[in-house]
Amino acid sequence: MSDRLITHLRHVALGVPDFDKQQKFFTDMWKLTEAETDTGLSFLAAEGSPENYVVRLRRAQEKRVDLVAFGAATMADVDTLADRLIRAGVRMISEPGPMDTPGGGYGVRFFDVDGRTIEVSADVGVRVHRKVEEKESVPVRLSHVVLNSPDLDRTRLWYERHLGFALSDTLMHPRMGKVMHFLRCNATHHSIAIAQCPHTSLHHVSFEMRGIDEYMRGTGRLLRSGVRKIWGPGRHMAGNNTFSYFLDPHGNTLEYTTELERLDEDTWHPHMYDFSDPDVTDQWGTANPMDEFVAKESFNDPDRGCFVAPPV
């Protein structure tokens, strides 16, 4: 898309009641690095990523998604995007301006069609990061985030129209119809996906590992530590990426993945995959079956943050 202004996914911000427990889980178990702290805030980085942080935790009375943050190439692009959103009647939270977060930068916040807070920023300083070594089972970067919506077609069209995302693939089921859209903002198969759900909520947050061996070592480390596995290990057909899904202490689903597909955007045509085909859900056949119990966990709790801007 020639006029696409979003370049990539930056981070996800979560509000959690048991802040200390969640912070310990992300650092001790999930192997993120605490880059900076503030009163009731923790900024968590991935070792191989130049982003200052890929997860922000905030001490909150209720569990919620505070925001999903994306990057833009320039401050002028942020201004252009904000102007487009205002003219289209999108509900804004803030005007474009300087940001007081690690890395600084220039950004804007607004609500998506489901009421999630979205942030787009540019001119953000980069973090000193490093190459993740062989056999090191720590996340390299944030891979993607999947969002639950009561109307996935409406939400897909909103992201395409207002933020320039493109459809990569769709999952469908013979009895349920379309169940998930995969959307991209660059050549990566998806930075976000929209899943059909009775309510607005977080489906899962995914983290890229160095390779297959590191992905499996990370999966095994979590299993040995007693972290509850929901689904996996396996390899999806849409995106061709590996998957192992676990629950964090607040019931959010997190994923270790690797080898998410890169597309030739000039020639790519979206597929419609039948989710009832076992090869679509898991090409390897190694994961536990996808059933109503796995799906229920991915529905998560209804998001308390809809159309309520986070305090920071």
- The whole-angstrom Rg is 18 Å
Element order: H for helix, E for strand: EHEEEEHEEEEHEEEEHEEEEHH
Helix content: 10-25%
First and last CA, distance:
32 Å
> What coarse outline follows from CA principal-axis ratios?
globular
User: How many strand elements?
Assistant: 17
Which topology of the largest domain does CATH recognise?
2,3-Dihydroxybiphenyl 1,2-Dioxygenase, domain 1
The secondary-structure class comes to alpha/beta
Largest sheet: 9 strands, mixed
Supply the CATH architecture of the largest domain. Answer: Roll
**What is the typical, i.e. mean, pLDDT?**
97
Domain unit count: 2
Number of helical regions: 6
Strand percent estimate: 35-45%
Which stretches of 5+ consecutive residues score pLDDT under 50?
Answer: none
CATH C-level of the largest domain = Alpha Beta
Which strands sit side by side, in order, in the main sheet?
14-15-16-13-9-12-11-10-17
CATH level-four homologous superfamily name of the largest domain: 2,3-Dihydroxybiphenyl 1,2-Dioxygenase, domain 1
What do these coordinates show?
This protein is of the alpha/beta class. The protein has two domains: 6-122, 2,3-Dihydroxybiphenyl 1,2-Dioxygenase, domain 1; 141-299, 2,3-Dihydroxybiphenyl 1,2-Dioxygenase, domain 1 (Roll). Helices cover 20% and strands 35% of the residues. The protein has a nine-stranded mixed β-sheet. It is globular and about 50 Å long. The chain starts with 5 loop residues before the first strand and ends in a 13-residue tail after the last helix. The mean pLDDT is 97.
